[in-house]
Amino acid sequence: MSAVVGVLNESLTESIRGFYKLRKAYVTLNGILEAEARYMKKRNGVGSGAPSRLSVESLRSNRSARSAKVMPGGFGDGMGSKPASNAPSIRSVNKNIAGDLAAPGAKPNGHNAAIEDDDDEFYDADEDLEHSQNIDDVAAKVDDLSMDGGSTANNRPPPAQIAIPSYHGLLDHDPDSDVFSNPIDVFIHSGANLYFGLLLVMISMIPPAFGKLLLIIGFHGDKDRGIRMLWQASKFHNINGAMAGLITLGYYNTFVGFSDIIPDHDPSSTDQNSVEGYPRQRCEALLADMRSRHPKSHLWLLEEARGQAANRHLSTAISILEGSTKSPLKQVEALKMFEKSLDAMYMHDYVLCAKSFSACVSLNNWSHALYYYIAGAATVELYRKHRTSDPKVAEVYAKKATELLKLAPKHAGKKKFMARQLPFDIFVTRKVNKWESRARDWNLPFIDVIGVSPVEEMIFFWNGYKRMDKSQLETSLDRLTWSESPMNPTWAREGADEKAILSVLRGATFRNLTRWDDARAVLRAGVLGVDKAELKGGLKDDWTAPAAHYEMGVNCWMQRGEAAENGSGAAIEEKLVRECESWIDRAAKWESYELDARFGLKIATAQDTLRKWNERKGKR
């Protein structure tokens, strides 16, 4: 976990160090899991013979340890109790592993790809040859460890034969299985699944260009395997299980919710072998389990609110966040406030949205520029709503919106990721500079040169349309209509890029209303039919063209799903998939543009989904 945090450091040097440690963690965890898989094969009679010694992952101890439910990292009152007398401590096991795993070619300075102290020096890794040796070495050594000091030869009957699903090769037994009779086995198994699963998911979600670099140095992401491992770890009643549950729910409620082209999945399914799509009932069951385990934790209330928002119940989500007691942890309060701010933005509750994002500034040191910007954007909508009906109130909102929006760029660039400025900080700075330039050129107040609703634009970037019900989507269309209405005297002066923003936002709204033809028509007329040169350069919004290509692909995918449900025929379904692939491929190959990493995550998920569809249909 320290390696993961190190990668997310502001300093490029520290991030590189983090990747180096992440590499070692990857090798070690992979070795442990390979040893686990080999043991289970032997245990079930798959190998050449019965194992002569018990492995770390599957040793059996006194039944009393199992019945007491005492395990390292547990949350119970007895978590400080000692394990069975014949089971060594985790510290002693780790020490033995470290001593036994010295590779034949290890360097004198202690460098080892498998085990190394946290305060090591930073070396260039010589792992071309050692990498595969170390994985096998770790697996073999761990497999041969004995935690009771004796042989397995005794008079006990052999364990029951348990079938393991061969297509993913993971140990997926429940916590009450006799495989986990030793509490140390439980801790090692749940911990290895938690951290290696997290690594696999993280690496699989890295943008393609950077992902290829990681592949060269030995990182191989596998989202499906990683999610299965997180689900497995979440079964256990210890800190590893709690962390795995939190990460799993966060993945489905945020990353899956952020994407549009995802595999088909029955939301009512509880199949433990399936990790595709959004398994609503399974996530709800996991959340209920975690709430019962940790009833006082505010993190599960946050995940419950995210789940409600993902199911288009925004008012319920806000009620959950507002109704809970205050958490003693400031970080948790910051997360709750940010989630409430987003939900208020999706609901078009502009007063609550502006108030909540302003509160985020005092709770969080990151993204102050974004918080001020969205608070100002929400206030712009309040100004526009009262401009004709109540000019005095509108004037107050105009002053406040101008103040917040001009304050945003002053806070940009204070936080960095891998020594680079945050993407939204760059976006906010350019956007405000664009409006200030137009105010000078058009000789108009700053508030009156702001183009298409900046709140709707932010909703699109956060994929808020996917969380809205029909009435909220209709409200979004009404707010977008303002730009072309007589209440906006500057629309005739707008350039092609501003009109393209309106088209993309309308297209996304139409799509979520299942108005496919309207979505396609507005995208073709407002973006795809415009010369690309008119949509980039200077202070223009250059993200609209690739976003329109992506939106066209999503429309095809959604229509495919409807065609499959209606039984329209395999030929029509395949035609729509091929068209979808064409649009997504063009979006993936687009030149560099603003917020390309954000769109890149959606595009990478879409490409993975299309690949799986082709494999399932036997097309490729």
What report would you give on this structure?
The structure is a single chain. The protein is an all-alpha fold and 620 residues long. Among the domains are: 2-155 and 162-262 and 271-295, no CATH class; 495-620. The chain has 24 helices and 2 strands. The chain has helices at residues 2-7, 12-43, 63-68, 90-100, 130-144, 183-204, 208-216, 223-233, 239-258, 280-293, 298-310, 314-323, 330-346, 350-363, 368-386, 391-407, 423-442, 454-461, 470-481, 496-512, 516-528, 544-566, 570-588, 596-617; strands at 416-417, 420-421. A two-stranded antiparallel ribbon has the order 1-2. A hairpin with a 2-residue loop joins strand 1 and strand 2 (420-421). Helix 9 (239-258) runs antiparallel to helix 10 and helix 11 packs antiparallel against helix 12 (314-323). The longest helix has 32 residues, at 12-43. It is globular. The chain starts with a helix and ends with a helix. Residues 47-135 and 138-169 have low confidence and may be disordered.
Keywords:
620 residues; mainly alpha; globular; 2 strands; single chain; two-stranded antiparallel sheet
Percent of residues in beta strands: under 5%
Main beta-sheet strand count, sense and barrel state? 2 strands, antiparallel
Q: What is the residue-mean pLDDT, rounded to a whole number?
A: 78
- Quickly give the structural class: mainly alpha
Using only C-alpha atoms, the radius of gyration works out to 27 Å
Write the layout of secondary structure elements.
Blueprint: H1 2-7, H2 12-43, H3 63-68, H4 90-100, H5 130-144, H6 183-204, H7 208-216, H8 223-233, H9 239-258, H10 280-293, H11 298-310, H12 314-323, H13 330-346, H14 350-363, H15 368-386, H16 391-407, E1 416-417, E2 420-421, H17 423-442, H18 454-461, H19 470-481, H20 496-512, H21 516-528, H22 544-566, H23 570-588, H24 596-617
Antiparallel strand pairs: 1-2
Helix pairs in contact: 2-5, 2-6, 6-8, 6-9, 8-9, 9-10, 9-11, 10-11, 11-12, 11-13, 12-13, 13-14, 14-15, 15-16, 19-20, 20-21, 20-22, 21-22, 22-23, 23-24
